[in-house]
Amino acid sequence: MSNDLPKQQLKMQWPEHLLNSPPDVQVPDGYILRTYQPGDEPGFYRVMDLAGFTNWDDETLRPWLSKILPDGWFLVVHEETRKIVATAMTNHNPSDLHPFAGELGWVAGHPEHKGKGLGMAVCGSVVSRLLQGGYEHIYLNTDDWRLPAITVYLRLGWVPFLYAPDMEGRWKAVCQNLDWPFTPHEWPHAPEEARSTSSPEDRAILPNVQPQDVGLSPRRLKRIQSAMQRHVDDGVVPGLLTMLVRHGQVGYVEGFGMADIETAKPIQEDTIFRLQSMSKPVTCAAVMMLYEEGYFKLSDPVSNFIPEFRDIHVGIDQVNEKSGKTEMELVTPEREMTIHHLLTHRSGLVYPNPEGSTAERLLGDLFEKQDPVEDAGGNTVHYRTADETLHQWIQRLTKVPLAHHPGTTMHYGLSIDVLGYLVEVLSGHSFDAFLKKRIFEPLGMKDTDFYVPSEKIERLSTMYCTGADNTFQVADRGETSSWAKPKKFLSGGGGPGWGLVGTAPDYARFAQMLLNNGELDGERLLSRKTVEIMTINHLPADTHLTGFAGYGLGLGFWRMMDFAQAQRMSSPGSFGWDGGAGTRFWIDPQEKMICMIMAQYIGGPWVAQEQFPVLAYQAIDD
User: HSE-up of 376 (CA within 13 Å, CB side)?
Assistant: First the structure.
């Protein structure tokens, strides 16, 4: 058979009737079956290479280490030569169908030791370990041409899993080659809805309806039109787009002003915006998807998964009594930084602040100024990190002291960017690939990415700031944009100069998924309970979101807690977030409504954004 890999691998499942029957594991004389020991890596890489899995090294292995169950990496050692001659891993690697699923992974054997049952031994050990761990859904992936390996699996008791429309035909060919009974009626199938071949293009936008169909008043919506156009005419903002979604349908969307003043290009429904910090909710959703799959607990130390955080310090400013100068003392953190600290901005990882503490000023070394543009107050607004991988950035970040002891202070900053790297470590995929496969494609977010491809660059709005003469100045534009080509630094936090780009219709689909308690058009990304956990207040009772009285903080969102304190129009329980270039969205579960305003204007003032909530709610007419 050809070893050209098809698009989808074959899958096999440990059958339900054998969940209480672990395989009988034995190795012949002259061999030792054991679990991994430090120093086994070179021998593992050698046997992987001999089995056809080339180019394994420490970097290749690293993402898998977080998936392997304790005492779940099995090896067979040849007693005479002390060489590793067979291996298999017990992975927590959930399927789309089962969030708590185990996997037999990376089975390899030395070709000079084949025919001795060593593959049966390591594979059987993996199955036994998964059954011991309470897994009821156990899978493996393989390829049509790996006939010797498939023979081992079948003899152990594994059965083909028909999870896609072409699986039955491919397994028929495999069974014919192996002279194995072909009994598809006895094999497990994926539910019909899970085998849907519907294209993301079919789910690209939410349906547009007449305002009155979703309880919005056409007459009152004109107040939004008048106010937004006035802000454009008065030179407050170059252009913006407003959108109201209610009961899952777009009841109102309209653009005002220009996406590019020089070319008189208007803001339109498909204009692409820099989302900047509106990337944070997307990142947090990705993290919580992995949380649902059992990769971590919220209370787990970050250093369990990112070892660079083991030796971090906290920088405490103190006044030297003799010199009278402020000096920074490095101290050991009072407690370990946890994933929950990252999700709630209580990690001590803050944004650089040239006027802040010594630690805050030192963080400026992580950033570089490129083509600096200043607002009317003289503040630099074009301030970004070097284009390096998330791992490279983490290595530099962890050499800078924290500004606070973890868990003590809510201080907005770089925490969510660290979570983007955590997604890479846990999933084994680059952050952008994970978002595309697990969020953007299922939701049909076809224009959302970390950059704008050349065929779409004309739709990217120019980003402006206000210069010293109070006129709009270009901060980022078109083919010379920072977002015009792929990046190494995949910022999940969307700090200055970075983060996702996307359209209002794309982001509305993400928001509708959250409003639907984690599901949209048959694609469930998160459970109802997880969305509930993400959107409750996680700050202590005597704390509110910094600078916003009456607001709490969830896992990726602000949450309206007390209207009397906040004095901003929305319902208690509403949640959302803003982006540094003038984008804002929020979700109101009580009114079944999503509100969005999108601009590309850094440095403020954000008059339109502050006025929009009142204009949105006054249009409700039911």
Answer: 9
* Dist CA 218 CA 238 (whole Å): 25
Q: Where are the alpha helices (DSSP H) in 480-542?
A: 504-515, 528-535
Locus of tokens 């084949």? 114
Q: Please work out, in degrees rounded to the nearest 5, the angle formed at the alpha carbon of residue 271 by the alpha carbons of 270 and 272.
A: 110
If DSSP states are collapsed to H, E and C, what string results for 11-53?
A: EEECCHHHCCCCCCCCCCCCEEEEECCCCCHHHHHHHHHHCCC
Please calculate the CA angle 259-262-263 and round it to the nearest 5 degrees.
Answer: 70
**ω before 605 within 30° of 0 (cis)?**
yes
Instruction: Provide the 10 A C-beta neighbour count for residue 386.
Output: 13
In the three-class reduction of DSSP (H, G, I as helix; E, B as strand; rest coil), residue 254 is classed as strand
- Considering the entire predicted model, what is its pTM? 0.69
Q: What is the DSSP string of 119-156?
A: HHHHHHHHHHHHHHTT-S-EEEEE-TT-HHHHHHHHHH
Per-residue model confidence as pLDDT tens digits over 204-251 = 568 888 999 999 999 999 999 999 999 999 999 999 999 999 999 999
Long-range pairs, 382-385, Cβ under 8 A, ≥24:
382/465, 382/475, 382/476, 382/496, 382/497, 383/352, 383/496, 383/497, 384/482, 384/495, 384/496, 384/497, 384/498, 385/489, 385/491, 385/495, 385/497, 385/498
Which residue type does 345 have? H
Given a contact cutoff of 8 angstroms between Cβ atoms, the answer to whether 366 and 352 are in contact is yes
Q: What is the DSSP letter of 401?
A: P
DSSP state of 205: S
Q: How far, in Å, CA of 122 to CA of 88, rounded?
A: 6
The Cα 438–Cα 288 span in angstroms is 12
- For 130, other C-beta atoms within 10 Å of its C-beta total 26
> Tokens in use for 601?
């204007």
What is the predicted pLDDT for the residue at 210?
92
Please report the pLDDT score of residue 52 as a whole number.
Answer: 83
Q: Which amino acid is at 317?
A: D
Distance in angstroms (rounded) separating the CA atoms of residues 190 and 202:
22
- Given a contact cutoff of 8 angstroms between Cβ atoms, the answer to whether 139 and 13 are in contact is yes
Instruction: Judge contact between 89 and 73, C-beta under 8 A.
Output: yes
Cα distances from 468 to residues 170, 232, 604, in angstroms, run 67, 19, 13
The answer to whether residues 344 and 553 touch, using CB atoms and an 8 Å cutoff, is yes
d(CA 523, CA 94): 16
How far lies 175's CA from each of 8, 147, 160, 167, in Å?
Answer: 18, 9, 10, 12
Which residue ranges of the chain lie beneath pLDDT 70?
1-8, 93-100, 191-205, 367-386, 496-497, 544, 546-547
Please state the φ and ψ torsions of residue 159, each to the nearest 5 degrees.
Answer: -130, 150
CA distance 479 to 616: 35
Say how far apart CA 207 and CA 268 lie, in whole Å: 17
| Cβ neighbourhood burial of 140 (10 Å; 0-12, 13-18, 19+) | buried
416-454 CB burial, b ≥16 within 10 A, e <16 = bbbbbbbbbbbbbebbbebbbebbbebbbbbbbbbbbee
- Nearest in space to 480 (alpha carbons), one of 463, 502, 499, 465: 463
8 A C-beta contact, residue 340 and residue 428: no
